[in-house]
Write a structure and sequence with these properties.
5-stranded mixed β-sheet, 5 helices, single chain, about 160 residues, alpha+beta, 5 strands
Length: about 160
């Protein structure tokens, strides 16, 4: 231990310069290999690989929207794709029966091919423009599932 102390005391400038260079090299290595690559990639990483083979065309989306808008109590339908999640927001009249409204989600799956249903998750939001004790609720269908799972079904949150 005394040998190291003596060496450091005799070569203070050289030790400080060596330490600074070592820290700079470590920071440069960390920056090049960990920080810079995160700026170039997309948000989803490789989770969207193969999405080109599973495109949901505008005609399919328009068909879904038109089919749902024809149903009783529906005032509007909007669609948004986020990665591998297809989001549909269905705006309803407040008096629409909950079971009927949940059935509208099946119109979505009927229009999307089985191949695409196994690739995308589907999320359906049922809402009204007025205050309602039943709405809003959300339904979610995982790509490996056959049915929607509904949350906040007719319950008010505090």
């Amino acid at each position: 231990m005394k040998g190291i102390k003596n060496f450091v005391n005799k070569h203070k400038k050289g030790c400080i310069i060596g330490l600074v260079i070592f820290i700079a090299v470590v920071l440069i290595f960390f920056t090049i290999f960990f920080i810079i690559p995160s700026f170039g990639g997309n948000t989803y990483g490789d989770r969207l690989d193969g999405i080109e083979e599973h495109e949901i065309s505008n005609s399919v989306v328009n068909e879904i929207e038109d089919n749902i808008k024809k149903e009783n109590g529906v005032t509007d339908v909007t669609y948004r794709e986020e990665g591998r999640i297809l989001n549909f927001t269905i705006t309803l009249e407040a008096s629409t029966n909950l079971d009927d409204a949940k059935g509208y989600a099946n119109l979505i799956t009927d229009s999307i091919s089985k191949k695409n249903q196994k690739y995308y998750d589907i999320q359906v939001f049922l809402n009204t423009e007025e205050d309602s004790e039943v709405y809003p609720i959300a339904g979610y269908k995982h790509k490996t599932s056959d049915e929607f799972v509904w949350g906040n079904v007719g319950e008010t949150s505090e």
